[in-house]
Specification:
This protein is of the alpha/beta class. The chain has one domain: Alpha-Beta Barrel (TIM Barrel), CATH 3.20.20. Helices cover about 35% and strands about 15% of the residues. The protein contains 15 helices and 11 strands. The strands form 2 sheets. The protein has an 8-stranded mixed sheet. It has a 3-stranded antiparallel sheet with strand order 1-2-3, with no helix packed on it. Helix 2 runs parallel beside helix 3, helix 3 runs parallel beside helix 4 and helix 8 packs across helix 9. It is globular and about 55 Å long.
Length: about 400
Amino acid sequence: MAKLISKRRTVFILITEPTTAIIVDDSIQSTEIDTVLLKVASRCNINCSYCYVYHMGDDNWSKLTKFMSDDTINATLNALAEIRQYQNKYFSVVLHGGEPLLLGVASLKSLFSGLRSVLDFNYPISIQTNGILITTEILDICSAYKVSIAVSIDGPKNVHDKFRITHNGEGTFDAVIAGIEKLRNHLDAQFLNAGLLAVVNPESDPNEVYTFFKSLQAPSVDFLYKDGNHDRLPGGKSSVDSTEYGAWMLGLLNSYLADDNPLPIRVIDDMLKVLLGGLVSKEGLGLTDFGIIIIDTDGTVMKNDTLKSSYNGADKFDIPINVKNGNLIPFLNSPAFIKYRELQRPTHKKCLQCPQLNVCGGGMILHRWKNGFGFNNPSVYCSDQLYLIDGMRDALSKIHLKYA
């Protein structure tokens, strides 16, 4: 059972097992949390073929209860209250899975009530969902507790249904669109609709995808590259040095720049912002660290769950920490957590000497993995990002010349 057994001038001691102690020196810069991701459901109602949770070799999901229990939720609420008291900075809470809407109406309402009992409306709470289970009743509850909703959809039907399928292999596009329509038509849609999330398929037409998302009148769209690494290349990428994803993103950029009223695209907006001297808001870009923790269905504190795609158990800390065992704060200042957070910064010589590092940030941690070398590698998307950044710089130069 975890508890604080000693607090002196410079040392916390956190007991996690009868014979194991984590010593935390508070001379180390304290860690502030930006996002807490709650894995409220370990199962999903669909079966996306590229999903890192179920199809990249990690089996932790199969050992977990289907949903967070009441005991785990109560312990999580206590942990969130501790973080709130510990830091002045607001943080966001994201409900994730699996599919979080599998919780159902009653459980969602109870969870939202609990979250708002410890976090006021200055703390953003959102749900990342595949959209299929959205109902008017769920939207009403989300509105009452100020919980926004982001929906995952990869593009028009021919693009989306290639990978985002049911357990029977059928496409999910029509059901997702039905959920998005309910979200768009709700009286509180302006708040509730947090935008869309898409995974890039480099074999699709970026202009067709852009035009489709523009037609949905979404407030914003974010794009992710498929999960993969040096040992398991992402789908659609022919080699480490190929640029299929960079070329696709450059095509998306061209559609974006040709639009007099462009659709906000966070990854493009952030990269352009850095090229113009600003800071990013997205993990995996720029030289900004983000404090992110994941609380799994059983209450275990995990690393970024996308690390599951690297190897089985890659998202686990060597010494397990569970919110049901007490105070989380000493752990957030422990060498183990600080080392995990430092993983966001690349260490490979090629990255450290690259003039584009301030833009790409070395990419996502999981994309750097290679057996025998760990995460000390450039991103498997390095060539794609360099290709895209060169294209962005060229586009900005042309715009400058046009209006000079």
